[in-house]
Amino acid sequence: MNVKQQDKLATGILYTIAGIIILVLASLLAFILIQGLPHVTWHFLTAPARSFEAGGGIGIQLFNSFYLLVLAMLISVPLSLGAGIYLSEYAKKNWLTSLIRTSIEILSSLPSVVVGLFGFLIFVIQFKFGFSILSGALVLTVFNLPLLTRNVEESLASISSMQREAGLALGLSRWETVMRIIVPEALPGITTGMILGAGRVFGEAAALIYTAGQSAPALDFTNWNPFYIASPLNPMRPAETLAVHIWKINSEGIMPDAVAVSAGASAVLIVAVLLFNLGARWFGQHLYQKMTGTGKKGA
Amino acid sequence: MDPIRESLLKVSHQAKLERRGRIIGLFCISLIVIVVAAIFYFVASRGLATFYHDKINLWDFLTKQAWNPGTKDSHGNPAVGALPMIVGSFLVTIFAAIVATPFAIGAAIFMTEISPRRGMQILKPVTELLVGIPSVVYGFIGLTVVVPVIRQLFGGTGFGILAGTMVLFVMILPTVTSMSVDALQAVPRYYREASLALGATRWQTIYKVVLRSATPGLLTAVVFGMARAFGEALAVQMVIGNAALLPHNLVSPASTLTSILTMGIGNTIMGSLENNALWSLALILLLMSLVFNLLIRLIGRKGAMK
Amino acid sequence: MKDYDLTKTAIKTFDPEVQEIALSTDDLHVFYGSKEQIKGVSLQFPRYQISSIIGSSGSGKSTYLRSLNRMNDEIQIARVTGKIMYRGLDINQPKIDVFEMRKHIGMVFQRPNPFAKSIYDNITFAPIRHGVKDKKVLDQLVETTLQQAGLWKEVKDTLHKSALALSGGQQQRLCIARAIAMKPDILLLDEPASALDPISTSVVEDTLAQLKAHYTIIIVTHNMQQAARISDYTAFFHQGVALEYAETKRIFTKPAIQATDDYVSGHFG
Ligand SMILES: Nc1ncnc2c1ncn2[C@@H]1O[C@H](COP(=O)(O)OP(=O)(O)OP(=O)(O)O)[C@@H](O)[C@H]1O
Ligand SMILES: [Mg+2]
């Protein structure tokens, strides 16, 4: 076989591989959406789950997922901003900084079960938060922090140092320069990273089964006092999320329409991920245009 | 008196802001470091209790095959042999990597070298989207599609290493692919141009020049995928069968460290041997994730030296 | 390149009784890591005068200028030793509040670096952060500084448009306006006209000539005609050393040092 034929063959194989991958991934998406979307009705999205009979919904789980997401982001966004700013603006090049970077790297690569078990040990047992939204939100924060921090740091680092000099030369502190000039300029990148992080948190299950728990007690959607036991906002109640729900009904195998419910729930999850993805792109671009004045409306 | 001169010797509002900002940043970053240290401390102290407190022999733990920490074997020793799970974890990880690597690198070559326009327009957004798909969804598809197909083809229950491998393969494929794309894109354009100008075919250029100089990056991508596969819990747990037995073939129910861990930890009492033994599995997971991390660093350093 | 004797220097000094000194350095050294880039420079800059710094590329002009308001503090590997005297204080020491100091010693950089904000916000940003709240005062400040920087006519109707939409020359004049909005005592400029077209350059030069009444100006420039046109005193830098410092006319007509002569007559290197 000469080199020309080899080249042809290799190209053919590469096309085949690309084709197979597209096929696998497309059928994956198609399977979920085709299997799942027909189940997604208003009733399905709002009704509570039923354990032993068919026809249950995912209303409470869906609410739990969002509430947990909001709480987790409320804690992790400011923390990651602070940490990212420190790394990009203040950290000197020395052993301490490289130790910090190493810890962040390690934390980001830990299996989420391990993070979940740690949360179980600390938040659920040690701090006596029990299986609760609070424990779940804290563990999701741990899970999310390293990636968000790195994203903040990278977004800040991509802003020219001339902008920092401009602020400093006007007698502003580094902190004000960063908070009011650099962070706003880096906002498109930071927001994109945060939204993608939110998507990751939304689908996370392994870290939650032993922290937020695997039960979804009935909620009283008429009472929003966070201290009331059945209030949707009560952070101390156990809260099975959508992703945990899919895992649980499939491993228990007692729900008669588990497959249908899982398919529906999976479709909802995927659509959510899709929205997070598109949202991240759109929002990042929109912000960028708004800030640089390159958009139609200008700044 | 000169007011400007005076003001230079005082602490300005901006200086106070600066100090406050630095403390806030330091607080956030310390929190992360403390959490990492705490994870190591707590998992290690629980995981080592099996050996220090319950006096289990480390070697037995790593090499014995019987896993049933609640009962004792014929010699009156508790059965805490973790070998089946260790083997299971390594098998699914290695198999998934073996299957995924050619696909991922092939797709990456396609996207960067063969058809960048189509590749970037179709393949890239799809892989990026798939990176974000929750692992339970992969587990669910494994359970409803992969397991029945394997059952049809090979008999048995369909649960096992093969099903786990398939699920993990699809799971890590997008990640490895997009990291491979980054690695290939990092190869300077003039390498390719120089090679093509010397009369090499496109494939020769890819094979001899591009792949070779991107090797560290591609290796990193694969190791990264393996780390994800090794630590994945729920998707694997849903399809592997969760029998703490040494797998005899690829289609008999088996288990991984993560699957036994997620199944068991809620059903055991804190501080009991059963519970400690599970924490020892978690400790292995933790250490393995360190090993993968170290590997990635070593590859990076080797790559930087070249 | 010719080797010039770096030990033979001709530096003008002033009698503080006759001429008030706004800023001076005394044996200033700057190191980047272990490399010494400024090797003991002692210069006095008289108040309400324009002093320019000339010299070939890499001679340390920017490095010297940046150390005057301690911008080199922000470069991790940089180390500055020696005295920087301002209002009877050595400002090159930790006990000096560096942020307060930079309010009084402002700086304009070689490349225009407006914030990604509106023109109006670019100018009012720092004054607001330093406590000016009154809207009327701010409006007035925007108008006067833009007028001083020769930009007012061009932008007075688009004050709330993004500054990034301005041309390079306009951006640089905005940066000058932004710097003088702080009403600094001393203004440091690092090749402010190097990115500008001839018309913008002459606008900026006129601006500087007018600002001289209220500000002490130290300007780094590559352009010898510019130095000759606008400055009262000129320093010539070579390889991190100030070889000569004198009245501008003197530097350009009968310099005391061979290197200066070669440089201003174009026979350098
Ligand atoms: N941040 C830095 N780190 C290390 N070395 C630097 C840094 N900035 C400048 N230098 C070095 O210091 C020397 C003087 O540089 P400087 O920028 O002061 O020269 P200059 O006279 O302003 O030149 P130009 O006319 O090109 O602006 C150069 O050799 C340069 O490489
Ligand atoms: Mg310079």
TrEMBL record, chain A:
Bilayer topology term: Multi-pass membrane protein
InterPro entries (alphabetical): MetI-like, MetI-like_sf, Phosphate_PstA
The UniProt gene name for this protein comes to pstA
Q: Which NCBIfam families match?
A: 3a0107s02c (TIGR00974)
Q: Does the keyword Protease apply?
A: no
Which keywords accompany this UniProt record?
A: Cell membrane, Membrane, Transmembrane, Transmembrane helix, Transport
Membrane-crossing residue ranges in chain numbering? 12-34, 66-87, 99-123, 129-148, 258-280
Q: Does the keyword Protein transport apply?
A: no
Task: Give a single Pfam family match.
Answer: BPD_transp_1
Q: Which family does it belong to?
A: Belongs to the binding-protein-dependent transport system permease family. CysTW subfamily.
Q: What name has this protein been given in UniProt? A: Phosphate transport system permease protein PstA
From TrEMBL, chain B:
What is the protein's species of origin? Answer: Loigolactobacillus jiayinensis
Descriptive protein name = Phosphate transport system permease protein
| Pfam families the UniProt entry points to | BPD_transp_1 (PF00528)
Major location category of this protein: membrane
Taxonomy of the source species: Bacteria, Bacillati, Bacillota, Bacilli, Lactobacillales
This protein's membrane topology, according to the annotation, is: Multi-pass membrane protein
Transmembrane spans:
21-44, 82-109, 129-150, 156-176, 218-240, 277-296
Name the keywords, alphabetized.
Answer: Cell membrane, Membrane, Phosphate transport, Transmembrane, Transmembrane helix, Transport
Q: Which residues form the ABC transmembrane type-1 domain?
A: 86-296
Q: Does the keyword DNA damage apply?
A: no
The family this protein is said to belong to = Belongs to the binding-protein-dependent transport system permease family. CysTW subfamily.
Localization, per the record, is: Cell membrane
What's its job? Part of the binding-protein-dependent transport system for phosphate; probably responsible for the translocation of the substrate across the membrane.
SUPFAM superfamilies, A to Z: MetI-like (SSF161098)
Superkingdom of source: Bacteria
InterPro entries documented for this protein = MetI-like, MetI-like_sf, Phosphate_PstC, Phosphate_Transport_Permease
| Gene giving rise to this polypeptide | pstC
From TrEMBL, chain C:
Q: Pfam families this protein is in?
A: ABC_tran
Key words, A-Z: ATP-binding, Cell membrane, Membrane, Nucleotide-binding, Phosphate transport, Translocase, Transport
SUPFAM superfamilies noted in UniProt: P-loop containing nucleoside triphosphate hydrolases
Q: Which residues form the ABC transporter domain?
A: 23-264
Decide whether keyword RNA-binding is in the record.
no
Q: According to the lineage, what is the superkingdom?
A: Bacteria
Cite a single GO MF annotation: ATP binding
State the signal peptide span: none
Instruction: Kindly give the PANTHER family that the UniProt entry links to this protein.
Output: ABC TRANSPORTER I FAMILY MEMBER 17 (PTHR43423), PHOSPHATE IMPORT ATP-BINDING PROTEIN PSTB 2 (PTHR43423:SF10)
Cite the NCBIfam families for this sequence. 3a0107s01c2 (TIGR00972)
> Know the name of this protein?
Phosphate ABC transporter ATP-binding protein PstB
The organism of origin for this protein = Loigolactobacillus jiayinensis
